[in-house]
Amino acid sequence: MFEYAPAPESVRPDIKEHYGLFIDGEFVDGQDVFKSVNPATEEVLFTVAEAGEADVARAVAAARRAQETVWGPMSGTERGKYLFRIARLLQERAREFAVAESLDNGKPIKETRDFDVPTAAQHFFYHAGWADKLSYAGLGADPKPLGVVGQVIPWNFPLLMLAWKIAPALACGNTVVLKPAETTPLTALMFAELCQEADLPAGVVNILPGAGAAGAAVVNSPVDKVAFTGSTAVGRAIAKAVAGSKKKVTLELGGKAANIVFDDAPIDQAVEGIVNGIFFNQGHVCCAGSRLLVQESVADDVLARLKERVSTLRVGDPLDKNTDIGAINSAEQLARITALTEAGRGEGADVWQPACDLPENGFWFRPTVFTGVQQSMRIAQEEIFGPVLSVLTFRTPDEAIAKANNTPYGLSAGVWTEKGSKILWAAERLRAGVVWANTFNQFDAASPFGGLKESGYGREGGRQGLEAYLDV
C-alpha cells in the first residue's frame, strides 16, 4: 500500500469565541451558554447561547411578522433572487464552510469539501429556480405558503440538512425558525452571518442553538409546519405532540438499509459501493447501508475483497485530505456504537477490524465488519449510526427481499446486479423510500428523498418536496 505524506488543510475559518442566537436579523444573547467541542481533539471551539422558550417565542413572532409583511407578499421572482444570492455566497465561502464543518462535526475535509457544501449550494440554486414557478409544479394552480416553519436538524450533516430544510421553505414563501443540533451549531451560525451578508429581510431566517428542550419549544410553538430529521424515537414524540393540531409535519427518521449483492454483480464496483454505503461520514448516515446481504455463492469472494479494501481506509485527522474516516461526533455517540458492537460480540457474531492506530485524544472508532450475523441480533435490527457493517447471506432473490424487508425501518436500500430486469424486480419489492442500483448514497436536489414505516413520512427535495411547504 502506498504511504501518504500528511496533507493538512491550510484554510482556517474565522471562528468567533462566542455566538449568540440569531433572531430577527440580529445576534442576541440567550438565557444560557454551552460549549461546542471539536470531536477530533476534545478542545472547545467556541461557546454559544442556548435558546429557551422565551427566545423561541421571540423568533416565531419575528418570523410571523416577516412572513406576513415582507416575505409572503414578495413576488416569487424576488424571493428567487435572494436564494440565488445565498447559493453564490455559499460557493464563494465554500472552503471556509467545509473546514468549519469538519472542525465542529469531525467528518473528513474531503467529504465536506466535495459533498456537503456543494450539495447545500445546489439546493439553494435548485429551489431558487422554483420560487416563481410554483403554480406549474403540479400542486394546484395557486399554491400558497403555509406561514412560519419550525425546523429541527441533526448533527450528521449540519449544513446540508439546513439547506434541505431552509431552501424549499423560503422558495415557497415561508419564513423559518431552525434549531441546529447542540453538538454542531457552527455552520448554522455562519449561515446566519451569510443571510446578513445577502441582505435577507430580518426575521425570514432565525437560528436558535440549543438542546432537546429548545427543539421541543420550537415544535410546540405556534408554527404552521414542523420539519424534523433525526431519530425515530424523537420523531415519534413529535408526531404525538402535534397530533390534533393543524400543523403539517414531515419526518425523516432512522434507517437500517440493506445493500444487496447478487451473484452476477460487478464485484469490485460493489465493494466500493459497500464501503461508501457504510463508512461514508463514519456511518453517521440515516440511509447508510449498514446491512450487507450477499448471495452465498459469491460471499467469500466479496468478503475477502471487502476486507482488503477496508484495510486501506485511513482513520485520523479530519483536516488531512488523505483521511477517509474521521472522528465520531460525540462521546455519547461513541458510547452507543461501542455498546452495540459489544452486543454483537455477545450474541455470537464474528467481528473483524483492520489494524490501525487511533489518535490519543478525541472520539474514534475503527471500521468494523460483523459476519455470522443472524436476523434476530441487535446489530441487524437496531440503527448503530456508526462505521459498523453487519453481513448476512442469502441463497435466492426471494430470500434476499424477505431479509431486506425484515426491519421496522424503510428509508433506503441498494441493489447490485448486472441485470436490469433484476434491478426493477427487486426495487418493486423492497419496502424503502429510496432504492439505489449499482451505486449508493447518490443525492440530487431535484430528486425526492424520504422513507416508509418507522423511517418517517413526507419527501424532501425535488418537485415532490415542495408540497410539504405549500397550502395546496
UniProtKB/TrEMBL annotation:
Active site: E252
Domain Aldehyde dehydrogenase: 29-471
InterPro entries: Ald_DH/histidinol_DH (IPR016161), Ald_DH_C (IPR016163), Ald_DH_CS_GLU (IPR029510), Ald_DH_N (IPR016162), Aldehyde_DH_dom (IPR015590)
Domain of life: Bacteria
Molecular function terms, GO-annotated: oxidoreductase activity, acting on the aldehyde or oxo group of donors, NAD or NADP as acceptor
Cross-referenced Pfam families: Aldedh (PF00171)
The UniProt record lists the keyword Membrane: no
Keywords, sorted A to Z: Oxidoreductase
Bilayer-crossing regions: none
Family: Belongs to the aldehyde dehydrogenase family.
Name of the featured protein: Aldehyde dehydrogenase (Acceptor)
Organism: Glycomyces artemisiae
Organismal lineage: Bacteria, Bacillati, Actinomycetota, Actinomycetes, Glycomycetales
